[in-house]
Request: fold
Amino acid sequence: MAEARREYDGRGGRLETIVADDASTDGTARIAEEHGCRVASLDVRNIGAARNGGARLAGGEFLAFVDADSRIHPRTFTEVDRLLRSARVVGGASGVTMERWSLGIAATWAVMVPLVWLTGFDTGAVFCRRADFAALGGYDERRRVAEDVDFLWRLWRLGRARGQRLVRARGIKAVASVRKFDEHGEWHYLRMLPLGLKLLFHRDHSDAFVSRYWYDASGR
Reply:
C-alpha cells in the first residue's frame, strides 16, 4: 500500500486510505491509525457492511476496495485513476495472483479463471466511481458472503444501460493471501463450490458454515 501511495502521489494524485475495522482483535485499528489511515469502526461481522462503512468516510471521486490480507500492485491507484477517467468504463477489478502455489491452489485457480473470463467479474482491488456506488446503494448488507459478486453484477448492469463496460485491469494484480487454504486445506475451495453457488443465489444467512469460515476464523 505504501509503495502504491508513493507512486500515485508522485504523479500528482491525492489518496485517502480508510481501514474498515469490523470488531477485529489483532490491533488493526491501532496499526491503521499509526500509519495515517482513517478508521471506520464497526461491530457487525458483515463484509458488505464493513465495505460500506469505509465508503461512507471517503471523500474522493473514485473508490477502490481491497481485502486487508491482500497486497496491492505499486501501480494500482495510477491505473484505476486512468481507467475511471474514461467515460467508457463503469468500474472493474485488478484480479489477483496467489502468494504461493500448490497443486490444490492451482486446481482451484484453473476452475475459477474460466468463470472470470466468461463473466468479466474479478477480485483484488475493485473500483468504481463514488456516484455510481451511491446510486447502487453500495454493497448488499443482507448478504454475508458473495457481496462482491452481487455488487459487480449490479455495477455491470448499470454500465450496460449507459454503454459502459466493466473492465479487468491489466498488469496490476493484487497478491491474495492463502490463509484460508492453510487453515482449511489445499483442496477445500473445490469442495465448497456447490455451497457457494447456493449462498450466491439464495442468500442464506443462517448457514453455520458461513459464520465459521468467514467470520469466526482464527487471526481476527
Summary: The mean pLDDT is 89. DSSP finds ten helices and eight strands in the chain. The first strand starts at residue 18 and ends at 22.
